[in-house]
Amino acid sequence: MDVFEVPFALLTFLGLVAIAPVWFWYINNFQTVDSLSPESTFLVNITFPLLALLYLASWLEGGPA
């Protein structure tokens, strides 16, 4: 990661941290999520962890710098 990309990384990290409580509150407290099929519930529950993994993978750079 270049030194000029650090502010963008911090901003996106803060955005991810800011949306996490809202996302988990919505999953745990909204009634229509409970009435979904098991497949849909799995997709709803796996979306945020996959988003976090995608975020981490986007800042990894492979190969020589």
- Principal-axes geometry comes out as elongated
Q: Helix-strand pattern, N to C?
A: HHH
Segments where pLDDT lies below 50 for 5+ residues?
none
Strand content: under 5%
> Structural class, from helix and strand content?
mainly alpha
Number of strands: 0
Tally of helical segments: 3
> Mind describing the biggest β-sheet?
none
Total domain units: 1
Rounded Rg? 16 Å
Average pLDDT value? 85
Span from first to last CA?
9 Å
Helix content: over 70%
Spell out the blueprint of helices and strands:
Layout: H1 6-29, H2 31-34, H3 38-58
Helix pairs in contact: 1-3
Description:
The protein is mainly α. The protein has one domain. Helix content is 75%, strand content 0%. The protein has three helices and no strands. The longest helix has 24 residues. 0% of the residues are buried.
Keywords, separated by commas or semicolons:
65 residues; mainly alpha; 3 helices; 75% helix
Please provide a brief summary of the model:
This protein is mainly alpha-helical. Helix content is 75%, strand content 0%. The protein has one domain (3-58).
